[in-house]
Design a protein that fits this description.
single chain; mainly alpha; transmembrane; Drug resistance transporter, EmrB/QacA subfamily; membrane
């Protein structure tokens, strides 16, 4: 930020909201209880998140389906699941998933702007 520059309005509103919230809740006392931690659940969660992160990183680096490593790792999983499932159901669900994604993508254009919202200003309004 330049020397002497004012913070933007969003920062001011955020600081104002934090100050009002602190003023409202500073005297409120919440009773606290000391509960034990589920160590098995916490260890499972940490293992799952770490595995997911490693899988996503490896998949991106190895270019997912064109990688022989990914194909070799997924072949036993697919081979174990497919014989036990009804292939017509799998094909139907795959088609419905494709149709849903295709429908959603058909509404996106290069002019889509999902981050800003048009607000009405006083000069945009028509006089009553």
């Amino acid at each position: 930020m330049r020397r002497g520059a004012q913070p933007d309005h969003a920062a001011r509103r955020g600081l104002f909201a934090a100050a009002v919230t602190w003023a409202i809740y500073r005297d409120r006392k919440t009773p606290t209880r000391k509960l034990s931690i589920d160590m098995v659940g916490l260890a499972s969660l940490v293992t799952w998140v770490a595995s997911l992160q490693i899988m996503l990183d490896k998949g991106k680096n190895l270019d997912w389906f064109s990688s022989p490593v990914f194909t070799v790792l997924m072949a036993p999983v697919v081979g174990k699941i497919l014989p036990k499932s009804e292939l017509r159901v799998l094909a139907t669900l795959s088609f419905l998933g494709f149709a849903a994604v295709y429908f959603m993508r058909s509404h996106y254009t290069t002019g889509v702007d999902t981050y800003t919202r048009r607000t009405s200003r006083s000069h945009d309004r028509t006089p009553d």
